[in-house]
Amino acid sequence: MYLIAKKGKKHIYYKIIHILVLLLNLNWLFQLTQIRMKGSKLEEKWGQIPNFKNYLISDRGKIKSIARKVWHSGSKTEMTLKGKTMRQRWNKKCKCYFLDLMDDDKRRRTIYPHKEVAILYVPNDDKTKRMIVHKDNNSRNNTKENLLWMTPSQHMSWQFEMGNKNNFKVWKTRKKLYANGFKETTVLPGRPKKKVS
């Protein structure tokens, strides 16, 4: 009653209507995201990772293990392992996801999901193209639509174009060591060598 007397009935009605509109919008947004999530789960394709028979990778970059039975040497019994989605770790240095898996020879190997997705789902006819880039320059987006094969030289020029690589520090140190950034004995193509008199 105190609130009504202080601000008036009209103000409270507007507040209630505003809250109802917000709740309806949130409900609509929640339903929309649920539909999108269901649609993306249906479209997700899974394939076996080469040399890792106990693991599957999706075209979205997720990795899961297959439910299987394993012999446990300590207890001398057969154990059943449940299939689960594997947790990927972020490598700060190379800025990409990675995880360790057991290969077919029972050795631990580090794999990079973007490479495995590209090998399975992105066609590569040219064997010289062995580098993979993310088209949107987001290393966390490992979907097959976002990956592209490149040659090492194309990859390097693409990294400079996107701003991921910068030679400023290299040239700064070189110019301190050498007058023009190059050694005196360096011959550049298309330029005559300067004669020292």
What does this structure look like?
- The protein is α+β, with helices and mostly antiparallel strands and 197 residues long.
- It has 2 domains: 40 residues; 107 residues, Alpha-Beta Complex (Homing Intron 3 (I-Ppo) Encoded Endonuclease, Chain A), CATH 3.90.75.
- 36% of the residues lie in helices and 23% in strands.
- It contains 5 helices and 10 strands.
- The strands form 4 sheets. A 3-stranded antiparallel β-sheet has the order 1-2-3, with helices on one face. Strands 6-7-8 form a 3-stranded antiparallel β-sheet. Strands 4-5 form a two-stranded antiparallel ribbon.
- The longest helix is centred in the first third of the chain and has 35 residues.
- It starts with a helix and ends in a 20-residue tail after the last helix.
User: Radius of gyration, rounded?
Assistant: 29 Å
Biggest β-sheet description: 3 strands, antiparallel
Shape, principal axes of CA atoms: flat
What does the average pLDDT come to? 81
